[in-house]
Design goal:
With 259 residues, this protein is an alpha/beta fold. The chain has a single domain, classed as P-loop containing nucleotide triphosphate hydrolases (Rossmann fold), CATH 3.40.50.300. The protein has 10 helices and 8 strands. Helix 5 crosses helix 6. The longest helix has 21 residues. It is globular and about 50 Å long. It binds adenosine-5'-diphosphate and magnesium ion. Adenosine-5'-diphosphate binds next to helix 1, strand 7 and helix 9.
């Protein structure tokens, strides 16, 4: 079992798209996948077909509900389970006491179910706060999607700083961050500038997979389904290649054991 946090401080940087499509591509490879939605806007939950509120991550974090009673099969994606978010998640900091290691809540809650899955994908919030810290403390590895915009690059820099500060005491084994070029268009000036900066600062951490900008993603998002599993598309192929690279990454951190 491996917990991968998909994080970038910048909203709109393809976190949710990456989470949902990577989940679909891993499920195609017959991996057991749980998606945990950490964004109060609950986009991933909606995308996975969850339409009700309640029985969600907030209740699990604050101890009102056992995690088993909140995880459910994703109505819209066969083979994937989901622990949904709700708007109330935005109040997390107000609802937990500061005395009881609140940065470690998610890690603690996932401990009882983690062995049921090959992958737990955490769809990160658009902020560096108690929730994103919970994701980084719970995770085995961090993946930062990077769209070719300077603000997204700054989001990567902020996440890297957050990771560096979490690692020494709260999660010494945290891998990464690795960088996924997303919604990528090679030929634009912005992409070249962002890539040059990223290579300079994060060179070896850049994944070889690239998810190209593809209208198929937007069409699929509008229809509320992943591109993986839909009609053949460039982005669908890219997410499958990503799933394969993520499996390699996981295996390399676990002494070559790939399952
Ligand atoms: N490869 C892609 N090609 C085209 N559009 C994309 C691609 N990846 C993401 N998008 C679009 O970019 C927007 C932001 O993506 P989203 O995953 O919601 O970001 P975040 O979760 O980081 O806020 C969405 O409208 C999504 O459909
Ligand atoms: Mg999102």
């Amino acid at each position: 079992m491996w917990i991968l946090a998909i994080v970038n401080e910048k909203g709109g940087s393809a976190k949710t798209t990456t989470t949902v499509n990577l989940a679909a591509a891993l499920a195609e490879r017959e991996r057991r996948v749980l998606v945990v939605d950490l964004d109060a806007q609950a986009n991933a939950s909606l995308w996975l077909g969850v339409t009700d509120e309640g029985q969600d991550l907030l209740e699990v974090l604050v101890g009102q509900r056992a995690i088993d009673q909140a995880i459910r099969p994703a109505p819209a994606l066969v083979g994937v389970e989901v622990l949904p978010a709700s708007r109330r998640l935005g109040n997390l900091a107000a609802q937990v006491g500061w005395g009881e290691f609140p940065q470690g809540l998610l890690r603690e809650r996932l401990a009882t179910v983690r062995e049921r899955y090959d992958y737990v994908l955490l769809d990160g919030p658009r902020s560096v706060d108690l929730l994103s810290t919970n994701a980084l403390v719970a995770a085995d590895a961090a993946l930062v999607p990077l769209i070719p915009e300077t603000l997204a690059y700054l989001g990567l820099v902020a996440m890297d700083a957050a990771i560096q500060s979490v690692r020494p005491i709260l999660n010494p084994n945290l891998e990464g961050p690795r960088v996924l070029r997303s919604r990528w268009e090679d030929r634009t000036l912005d992409a070249r500038a962002v890539l040059a900066q990223t290579q300079e600062q994060f060179g070896p951490a850049i994944l070889r997979s690239v998810v190209r900008a593809d209208m198929a993603v937007r069409h699929a998002a509008r229809a509320g389904r992943p591109v993986v599993g839909g009609p053949r598309s460039r982005a669908g192929d890219d997410f499958r290649a990503l799933a394969s690279e993520v499996e390699e990454w996981k295996a390399s951190t676990q002494g070559g054991i790939s399952a």
